[in-house]
């Protein structure tokens, strides 16, 4: 329930492509610019027409706005969402609009999906452009992009259909992290642990990320790197991700109602699983000469005896059976890091160790791991105990009577009503909220161009047909969205309820007058 | 030259003045030489050293220890003197004349009277004055204890109660108010009484442990083999077992005597002192001292056995070679060779920390060399632990603690080590806050004085160091020569001693104004001092990556939070600066949001200051101001950021009247936005009574009109 289906007439209603404007500029070489296309079994002519339209629009709009070209095409039945991932490397998503099929989109949410695909790709492989430079034929890039994005999209797969974030997900925010609220004492314990982890090896500093359940507790990474690693961690490394086997992006399904049956490792429908599990014959990336790691593959992580998580995705070190430690790229510093994840009960620790600091490969990594266990295991126990004690459970952040989404844009943090509670809202309320969010998105992007330094204060209250109040307020980098159903009819009441919430849960940030 | 230098060095070490040592006695001693002296006696109840002549008694106050104190004298009648003690109010002198007779002198009137025992069976072993409510005077006889009361009106003394017991010899210290009576063939069966102001407690009878040497010879315990030691307010008895070469220890509780394990001894003659709650075992034969801190369960010595050191001799002395030193008369000191004196045969150890050199008529006070002790161990946390328990030289201990902690941080020792060190300091501080010893000076002590030592309740640690003021004297039953007297360190003296130390040692300048109070009675370091004397200087000295110091501060905060100690904002401000130096803004906001750095105006201002580089941090500062309800500052900053209308709304909601309208108006004018100016004017006209009649209003209305007409043109 609740998921929009981008599927119509038997074919996937969604198309997703990545192309490079610097390639294939000569007549007859157009295919060269296509780096990725989904669905891959579309005829090239169709693929090229989608890309051709996009390219044309980009070229045209650049005349007026060289910095930010086309963002969106709204056609009668389709929306084309543009995202320039790297200079001249564009991602375009085409979704079909359909009221009946609940295919009502918030464009910014879709763009966030594109953004996340690219960020994660960068985290594991580095920039697309660099890869293209390494192998100008494009084969290497395609060989990486295809399985990666297919693995990514498989998380959105429900039954046979790819379900993208729709209006029903209006009280969620993609591309943000969710944080655990901790008391001062526990926070100090956490920091004490962080310092131990950080000071791992003399002069070089390690980075760390600590999660409790699916919530972030601490990070020493830059905000962007935190978002990426957090997204990966809750999908593939968290206790829930490990235990449920094949999981899906919890963005869509975290704490979801039982009707959201998680897709098993083998898909029910052969035709779909074909699409996701095998690289189709006509795919440009069908080239087995490249050794491609697939970090988003399901069921490839497990907990080792020493508490560290292990995976064979990165293969084994030559001449041994020990799985190689995964490596990732940090966006902020461009450094390559070993990723060591340790799990104790609900606590997941991710330690990033610079490759440059370790001279003897796996041996060095296991030495570091050993050191961590020696120095930090007591603290880990203590932190886990403290956090478990303060943990309010799945619905810890539910506020009765309210359905809300709170976003801190500066810190890329969001908090929302538990998904199970959001599903109790009427469709009208959700549609109104989705619409409202689009308005705010628009307003935000406008004010960004007008005045980059000043955040705009904004307040909108809507009385929906079903007598619900739908409220949005933004103030200096913070946004609060709220749906009040079965509430009193006066605006004063709605405003009071809002104020109360702000005072109680947001430190009064939204109560200016 | 070099040969001379080396020889002089040798002599220095041989004379002990330059050698390694943890305990020293400071020259000059208290000289109690009077012509015609018939020996020295120590009264530990009054901390007086007596030297009687044929018709006078000279007395020196031993506590506080002042080598230049002049004696007072009282006239007495002629006769043999076995022992002398003043009553606790110092009005009456009691002199034991024989094994049957005690003579009392009233000091003011000179009147005297005698108390005699029946000659048949009894003989007097000794006596002492007591502050217990039932009686004033206790007579220890071979047949038991006589408790006597003094009647001021009739100027007589009468028996109140008798406790019949066989007594071979006894040990008493005023410090513990405890009298132990030995009986039995081997003198190893003991009865004990504590006669304190709280009343009389009878201890259960107990036996001491004696190893057998050979099949038939049973060693007999002598009174010089048993010591009562008061450590951290707890009362212990230490007993020498010459056969096993062990020093057994027992601890006294109200209803039990519990053996506490044994310490090895390395000499046939052993003496015991307690200095500042540190147990000193003098291995007299080996001429070394072993130190124990009997606080926790550990019975391991604090450091290696080292000799006692003489301090304060003229340098010329030490440069002379060893052989000649013996012959040289040091005119001022009148001591021929210091080494010859160390542990001389007629040294008597007085409870708790005095040494009486009977032949030279010197009284020495034993001092701990905290510096040397702390330098002999590299285990910072345990050294700090030890130093934090020292009260006598609290100020010095404090300086040492600070220096040690500073060094471990500067040396970048592992965070866990530093964390332990900080734990020790903060726990000690927290304890001193609870017991009030941190701020209060001498007050606690008088109370404890009258309350007497606690024989009973197992004490909770260091808090009772202060209450251990009571002093003890190991009884002198040996004939005429020496009363083994003890000075006891009532804290008055120790305080005075400290202030002297303060003057000479601490003039270094490190100490901030915050402790002018030379009356430190606790070495604990407040959180504020941690900042000003530890973190701030360390931060200045430290080079390179500040994240190590951040880690240390986090540990400090953890420790403070677990001890529930409030932390001053200045440490938070420092933390913010350190994090910002590394541009770790994301972590900084986490610190703020989780309130690891608690909100305060200082913190908010620091955030705002940093906010010039990072707008997020500025917002954190603003939010903090708002949450602290610092409305005035908040409104000003909103205006500064250009949020005029928001500022006005906020000011109205929170009734901030301290911000002048002209501030907003000027800001609005400078924005060149006539709408804004109009809005601001309108706001004040509507909400500020009387605004319309102010010159401000007229002036700005005029400006608004000009702006509008300019637009119209």
Automatic annotation (TrEMBL), chain A:
Q: Which GO terms describe its cellular component?
A: Mon1-Ccz1 complex
Look up the record and give one Gene Ontology term from the biological process aspect.
vesicle-mediated transport
Under the heading InterPro entries, the entry gives: Ccz1, CCZ1/INTU/HSP4_longin_1
Q: Which top-level group of life is the source organism from? A: Eukaryota
What residue range is the signal peptide? none
Q: Where is the CCZ1/INTU/HSP4 first Longin domain?
A: 17-126
- Tell me its family: Belongs to the CCZ1 family.
Q: What is this protein called?
A: CCZ1/INTU/HSP4 first Longin domain-containing protein
Species assigned in the record: Salix koriyanagi
From TrEMBL, chain B:
Name of the featured protein: COLON CANCER-ASSOCIATED PROTEIN MIC1
From the UniProt entry, list the residue stretches annotated as the region Disordered.
450-488
- Domain (Regulator of MON1-CCZ1 complex N-terminal) spans 40-156
One annotated GO biological process: regulation of autophagy
Q: Could you tell me which PANTHER family the record lists for this protein? A: COLON CANCER-ASSOCIATED PROTEIN MIC1, REGULATOR OF MON1-CCZ1 COMPLEX
User: What Pfam families does the entry give?
Assistant: RMC1_C (PF07035), RMC1_N (PF21029)
| Bias-annotated ranges (Polar residues) | 451-488
Question: Domain Mic1: where?
Answer: 498-686
Q: Which species is the source of this protein? A: Salix koriyanagi
Q: Which GO terms describe its cellular component?
A: late endosome membrane; lysosomal membrane; Mon1-Ccz1 complex
